[in-house]
Amino acid sequence: MQHIKIIKILKLKNFQRIIFCLVIIFISLFIYRSVLYSKTVPTFSSRGQIDILENVKTFDNGFFEYIFSQSIPAYKVLSEEMQMSKESENRGPNFIARSVLKLALNIDSFTGKDIIAYQIPLFGQIGLETSYTPGVELNQDKQEKEEPIEQIPENEHEPENTNNSENIEPPEVEPEQIEEVVPAKGAPIVLIYHTHTTESYMPSKGYNYKPRDKAYHSNDLNYTVVRVGEVLAKELEKYGIKALHNKTVHDVPTYMYSYSNSLNTVEELLKKYPTLQVLIDLHRDAPYSDPNKSRELTTVKINGKLYSRIMLVVGTDKMFPHPNWKENYKFALLIQEKMEELFPGLSRDIDLREQRFNQHLSKKAILVEIGSHGNTMEESIESAKAFAKVLSEVIKSISKKT
Q1: What residues are paired with 306 via a beta bridge?
Q2: Closest CA relative to residue 281, chosen from 330, 226, 323, 336
Q3: How far apart are alpha carbons 321 and 201 in whole angstroms?
Q4: Which of 41-45, 89-93, 346-350, 370-374 has the lowest mean pLDDT?
Q5: Are 183 and 402 within 8 A, CB to CB?
Q6: Is residue 239 classed exposed, middle or buried when 0-12, 13-18 and 19+ CB atoms within 10 A define those classes?
Q7: Which of 1, 56, 68, 269 lies at a C-alpha separation of 20 to 30 Å from 74?
């Protein structure tokens, strides 16, 4: 039997491959600059530091232009045509050659870097800015001039694009016929958490921050709905309602799995704290892409003080099994009625949705939208204080007598 010697080649991991490619590219870059520009050593600034930036300025186009001119003869034709198009409107034979090559390569851009990016997607990600959530334009003149307005879907709390649920009919229920809350001495009965943890408000004098994107989000939880949740929890404690406030971030790195992430969090907390009965998923709304237009809808003045208006969102069983949704709706009705009694104009309509928003986990689970990205943190904190008073009175009114 003839023996065949097999040479095994170790497979590099993805990270090692990337490092290997980068090393080869930068070695080629310096060789390329040394040959074409006769720069065998790096230049030095007046401070004696190596001016690295000067040595890589041509990396973007010049390096790739050189490689393609050596490997694809037609690329030289393209380069000449591109230069010609800048100087005149001449559309001669070179334009035809460029069009044919464009069709063959199925690309729209003819810079070296862009062509490489079509073949190696990793390069296409260089220099891109990631946006995790739908965006809106900041209310700043400078950005309005420099960037186009990006639209944000109405009702930002939706986990995904779904059918319009405006036609859901409210069920006929008796709010008084609601299951009682069982007191738990020394243990929390209210859970406050945030599926969209990084939702923030319009920067203000007292809470001035730099949003991470155009939709008023921040990774600093001191400027997000988490801060409002802190106030709500402390105010509830003052009224004798023990609350647990969870600050787990659920919408980073991606907005898409926010509700799946918060579902896991709440399920774990319910196991750890079986006394929890009232679940509050605290958000801020974004009813319109324009924060100023949103502000008109979500701001109210009561007794000379500005508040962020509050909307209660109740999920139904239109998409997933949700046997508790009518109980949740009863609970929301009690809260809305008490809110109108104590703070007229603070509440917005109860929003019935097709999605269940993890509210199947309890018979007293609601999604609470305090204000919008058109409101300030100060206004939303005032609303959290008001909501704490409302919620505490509702809970006490339906608490089981012991």
Answers
A1: 301
A2: 226
A3: 34
A4: 41-45
A5: yes
A6: middle
A7: 56
What's residue 299's pLDDT?
Answer: 98
HSE-up of residue 218 (Cα within 13 Å, Cβ side): 21
Query: What count of other Cβ atoms lies within 10 Å of the Cβ of residue 358?
Result: 24
Cα-atom radius of gyration of the chain, to the nearest Å? 30
Lowest mean pLDDT among 61-75, 132-146, 290-304: 132-146
Contact between 370 and 225 under an 8 Å Cβ cutoff? The reply is yes
Tokens 């003045």, located at residue: 301
Non-local (6+) Cβ contacts of 292 within 8 A are 139, 374
* Separation between Cα atoms, residue 371 and residue 284, nearest integer Å: 5
How far apart, in whole angstroms, are the C-alpha atoms of residue 249 and residue 34? 49
| pLDDT over threshold 50, residue 325 | yes
β 364-372/278-285 pair status:
parallel
Peptide bond into 253 cis (omega under 30): yes
- How far apart CA 52 and CA 40 sit, in angstroms, is 13
CB 370: neighbour CB atoms within 10 A?
A: 30
Query: Is the CB of residue 250 less than 8 Å from the CB of residue 265?
Result: yes
CB 380 within 8 A of CB 344: no
Give the range with max mean pLDDT: 88-97, 141-150, 296-305. Answer: 296-305
What was the pLDDT predicted at 68? 55
Indicate the pLDDT class of residue 208, thresholds 50, 70 and 90: very high
Q: Taking the CB of residue 332, how many other CB atoms lie within 10 A of it? A: 24
The C-alpha atoms of residue 283 and residue 278 are separated, in whole angstroms, by: 16
pTM > 0.90: yes or no: no
Beta strand ranges found along 207-329 (DSSP E): 243-245, 278-285, 299-302, 305-308, 310-315
Tokens of 201: 């408000």
- φ/ψ of residue 252, rounded to 5: -130, 135
Q: Which of 134, 318, 212 is nearest to 221 (CA)?
A: 212
Which positions ≥6 away from 127 have C-beta within 8 Å? Answer: none
User: How far is it, in rounded angstroms, from Cα 306 to Cα 294?
Assistant: 15
